[in-house]
Amino acid sequence: MNRRKLIFLLAGAMSAARALRAQQKAMPVIGYLGSESPGPMAPLVAAFLQGLSETGYVDGQNVAIEHRWAEGDYDRLAALAADLVRSKVDVIAALGIPSALAAKSATSTIPIVFSVGDAVERGLVASLARPGGNLTGVSLLNVELTSKRLELISELVPQAGVIALLVNPNNPNTERTIRDMEEAARRGCSSIF
Fold it and tell me: Could you give the domains of the chain?
């Protein structure tokens, strides 16, 4: 093999390697949309990262995570979700109904994985068995269990005359939570203030 052929062969191999690297997909990006602040949500974020690592995804190694936090200001969620969409994330992880609703409004193409209360009632999915669209996730049904918790407290501490209920007035579930608790109290569980 003469020198000229060797140079052409090496140049061709280098060009092919460069083209192959250019065709490889960049590291996938997960957009994490949270309605609260990062500090109080640290245990949930740690669990999220642990779950990812258990399936082989490690932040900064083979997946990138872009966090957006509303810091309790739910009015910011729409803009934060739109920012994730503009960033062209591969998937959006939405924690809570306000975050999931904002993500749903921002995109109909990027997959959205949520952890919420009743996803069907809030209009996120058509049904739990067949969510349809670009949303899927876990429906915790916490609001539905609120009155059961009051009943349990009343059984465990029957002498309790007053039980306080602390809620976030900006949370979309607050009205229903209060209504369910008041109804449970009227059934004879306790007094609620």
Answer: 29-140 (3.40.50.2300), 143-192 (no CATH)
